[in-house]
């Protein structure tokens, strides 16, 4: 298919083939409807990470258990949900590639909302004993399944509706709403920690952010009910009589692309969760920071992340995904140890520490901005939802979901406060060759039908 045909398809989001008249409204609806589910997903994952120490005490601390042991178990539950993401990506991705992006995303956001709200209603260990951690883990599994089906559909919708030459920017909105979700979770957690005393926060205040998923989910459902099917999916569905166009590629080619995608995402996954989600617990348990100080540092890091994403996505539309993502990876490798050293230095000023976490977040943003469009460009329409969803969820399962568990356990065993930097540098260095293998002109090529 030619780039011209792709341009026509991307401009016909109102359902009138070849007409650009309805493209801006359709594209805007695609951005909003795709983004809102990502916001809810990462808001919940952020809240869970920010309240990890409280959740550990409520659900994983029978009499005689240590706080560190409970925190490790909390992160194990956190990691388990991530490992169910690939199952959700495969399940919902298959549905989305067969029956459409729109109906699948409606189902996904409904399940995600229900699972998130359930966490806010669960009884604690003091109430139901050993059943409490199992109930929490079940809710996390359901959340992981639904979240696994979110990314592939949302990115497919955003990039398949994107006008020519703007896929990087459109895809970056997925990452930007991740940042907004994490910021919203951190901001609400910090607000509750400020206005509530410790007893109220640990008794019932921590439940409020999870229950807020209900009105958010209803708003997301309404937006997705108004969403149109993407031009790319409509073309692929209408071309079933032309096997060369409509048939999916061989499974070996798809799995090869998924493996390559994991390599290109692993640095983003590891650094993102280390600096943006795991950091509060690290600052509290390892460096002795207060809950409020840890959350404030995380808000600053997420602000740097958010501010870098859209410019990075737009820049990748001009100079290519490879240049921007390699620059972000190298920055993380070079800066990880110095930035962590500033946080550990008792004589460092508040301004210096704030600059350190802001810079760490911004470096992650250089990966997160171009990342969604880069993945979308790796797969044809017939397997795009499944392929990019699996690459993203598998990368996150291994390198994000396990980050808190790995870092906390290694610090516990070794006493080395530099473990977060070791983890980030090692994973980023391992993923750098896959990013260098990107073609420099992928951003100029049409999406494959």
SSE arrangement:
Blueprint lengths: L2 H8 L12 H28 L1 H8 L7 H17 L1 H15 L1 H19 L5 H4 L2 H18 L1 H12 L5 H29 L2 H6 L4 H4 L1 H13 L5 H8 L4 H4 L4 H35 L5 H29 L1 H24 L5 H19 L2 H6 L4 H19 L3 H12 L4 H18 L13
Describe the overall structure.
With 449 residues, the chain is mainly alpha-helical. It has 23 helices and no strands. It has helices at residues 3-10, 23-50, 52-59, 67-83, 85-99, 101-119, 125-128, 131-148, 150-161, 167-195, 198-203, 208-211, 213-225, 231-238, 243-246, 251-285, 291-319, 321-344, 350-368, 371-376, 381-399, 403-414, 419-436. Helix 16 (251-285) crosses helix 22 (403-414). The termini are close together.
Strand proportion = under 5%
What structural class do you assign from the helix and strand content? mainly alpha
Q: Order of helices and strands, N to C? A: HHHHHHHHHHHHHHHHHHHHHHH
Number of strands: 0
Shape: globular
Query: What is the rounded distance between the termini?
Result: 7 Å
Give the averaged pLDDT, no decimals. 83
Radius of gyration: 21 Å
Main beta sheet strand tally, sense and closure? none
- How many alpha or pi helices? 23
Taking pLDDT < 50 over at least 5 consecutive residues as the criterion, the unreliable ranges are 1-23, 241-246
Helix content: over 70%
């Amino acid at each position: 298919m030619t780039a011209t045909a792709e341009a026509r398809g991307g401009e016909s989001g109102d359902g009138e083939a070849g007409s650009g008249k309805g493209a801006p409204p359709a594209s805007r609806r695609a951005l909003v409807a795709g983004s809102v589910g990502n916001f809810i997903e990462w808001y919940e994952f952020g809240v869970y990470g920010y309240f990890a120490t409280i959740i550990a005490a409520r659900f994983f601390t029978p009499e005689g258990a240590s706080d560190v042991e409970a925190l490790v178990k909390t992160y194990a539950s956190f990691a388990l949900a991530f490992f169910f993401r690939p199952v959700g990506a495969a399940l919902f991705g298959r549905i989305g590639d067969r029956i459409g992006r729109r109906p699948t995303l409606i189902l996904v956001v409904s399940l995600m909302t229900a699972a998130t709200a359930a966490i806010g209603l669960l009884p604690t260990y003091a109430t139901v004993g050993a059943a409490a951690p199992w109930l929490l883990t079940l809710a996390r599994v359901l959340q992981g399944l639904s979240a696994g089906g979110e990314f592939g559909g949302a990115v497919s919708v955003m990039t398949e509706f994107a006008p020519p030459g703007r896929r990087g920017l459109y895809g970056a909105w997925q990452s930007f709403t991740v940042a907004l979700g994490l910021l919203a979770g951190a901001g609400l957690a910090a607000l509750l920690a400020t206005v509530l005393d410790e007893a109220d926060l640990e008794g019932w205040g921590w439940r409020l952010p999870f229950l807020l998923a209900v009105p958010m989910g209803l708003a997301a459902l309404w937006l997705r009910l108004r969403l149109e099917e993407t031009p790319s999916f409509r073309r692929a569905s209408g071309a079933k009589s032309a096997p060369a166009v409509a048939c999916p590629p061989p499974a070996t080619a798809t799995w090869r692309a998924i493996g390559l995608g994991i390599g290109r995402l692993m640095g983003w996954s590891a650094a993102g969760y280390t600096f943006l989600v795991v950091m509060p617990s690290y600052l509290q348990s390892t460096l002795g920071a207060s809950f409020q100080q840890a959350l404030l540092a995380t808000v600053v890091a997420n602000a740097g992340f958010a501010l870098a994403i859209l410019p990075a996505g737009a820049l990748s539309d001009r100079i290519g995904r490879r240049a921007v993502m390699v620059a972000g990876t190298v920055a993380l490798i070079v800066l990880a140890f110095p930035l962590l050293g500033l946080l550990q230095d008792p004589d460092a000023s508040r301004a210096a520490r704030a600059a350190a976490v802001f810079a760490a977040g911004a470096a992650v943003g250089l990966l997160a901005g171009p990342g969604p469009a880069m993945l979308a460009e790796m797969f044809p329409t017939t397997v795009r939802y499944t392929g990019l969803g699996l690459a993203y969820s598998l990368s996150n399962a291994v390198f994000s979901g396990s980050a808190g568990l790995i870092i906390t356990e290694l610090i516990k065993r070794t006493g080395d406060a530099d473990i977060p930097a070791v983890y980030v540098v090692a994973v980023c260095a391992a993923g750098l060759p896959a990013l260098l293998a990107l073609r420099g002109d992928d951003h100029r090529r049409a999406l494959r039908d």
